[in-house]
Amino acid sequence: MVKVRHRVRYPPFESSKMNPEEIPIAENSFELKGNVVPPFKLGNENSWLVERIVEGDYQFDSDYHGEIPTAIEKQRTGWYILPNPIHSKARKFINIAVIIMMTTLFYLFTAPLQGSLGIPTFGTGKIRLGLLDYPVLAVFIVPLLITPIVLRVAANLSDLTRQKEFLSNAPKSPKIEFYEIQNDSNLKGKVIFDQLPIETKSMKITWRVGVLPPARHRLFAALNLDPNGQPPPGLTTALPHHWEEGLDDGTGMGEDAPMERHDVPGGMFLRPMRIMSTGSVDEITLDDSEFTLDPPEGEWPGTVYGDLIRVHWECIITFERESGGPLMWVQPLIVSHSDNEIVNPDLIIQDGRTESDIL
Fold this sequence. Notes:
Elements (H helix, E strand, L loop, with lengths): L1 E8 L16 E7 L7 E4 L5 E7 L14 H6 L2 E4 L4 H31 L9 E4 L2 E4 H33 L6 E6 L6 E6 L7 E12 L4 H7 L52 E10 L5 E4 L10 E2 L4 E12 L5 E7 L8 E3 L15
Parallel strand pairs: 3-16
Antiparallel strand pairs: 1-2, 1-4, 3-4, 5-15, 6-7, 8-9, 9-12, 10-11, 10-14, 13-14, 14-15
C-alpha cells in the first residue's frame, strides 16, 4: 500500500485582497494499491499551494488521471463567447468614481473650516431640485456614480443578445486530432473544420494548464468543518442554486461572470482558472490547419482529477469575427505525466473574473 497526501491552499475569488498565510491548508490522506500518479508541488508554504505527496515504495503510472469531474463538461467544454469589454472598463471606472466621491464628501465636510480660515471654496452652494436642496458638487458627482451602473446594464443586455444570436445559429464543432500529448513536450495536431462560424476573419489556437477550484464539500471535509456552518477564510456562505456539489468552491457567486442564459448548462462564458499558465499561440487557416504549440511556462504535472486537486489541461481555438465579438472552442485534454517529481514554486494567479481572462 502507498500513502498519498493532498495539501491545498487554493486562491479564493479576488485573492489579491487575501493574505495567503491566514487561509488554512486543507489536507486529505488516503492509501492506494499499485501504481500511482507522480508527486508534485505547485506553489509554496507561504503562498498558494497545491501539493501531492506520495510515501512508500511505489511505481509511477503516467496514464492514470482520475474521473472527469462535472465541472469540465458543464463549464469547460464546447463553444464560449467573450464578455463585452465594457464590463472591465466600467469596473475600473467605478473605482475612480468612488475615489472622486470620497474626496468630494471630505471637501464638503471641511468647507466650513476652510471658510473660517479664509480659504475660498467652490461648489458648496445649493441647488433646489423639487422640494430639497442639494450641494452643487453632488449634482455633478451622482451622475458620475450612476454612469458605470448604466454601462454594466447595457453590456449585460448586449451579452444576452449575443448569446441568443449564437444559440439560434450555432456552428458545427471543429475536430482536433492530436499527435502526442505530454506535459513536458510540444502539442502537435491538426484541426478539421466542417463549418466555420459566420464572418470569421482569423483563427488562432493555444493550450493551457491550471488548477480548478476544489469541490466545496471536499474542502469542508478536509478542514473538518460543518458544510452548513461558518465557512473558512476565503470562502463565502453558500447560496441556494448558485453552486452545485462537486462543481466548484462556490466563491464566485455571480461575480465571476456577466449575465448568462440559464438554459445553457454551465453558461456561455469561460471562467479563468485562478492558477493558470498558457502555452504559445499558433495561427491556423483552412489551408494550413496543422499546429505546433510550446508547453506552458513552468513545470506542470499531467491531468489529475479528484475532489481536492484538479490539474486541468485544455486546448482553445479563438475565432475572430467581423462582428459579435470572438468565439472560442474549448476542448479538454488528457495529458500524460512524466516520471519526474514536479516542483513549480512560481504560480501565475488570475483574478477569477471571466472578463479578466487573457487568451
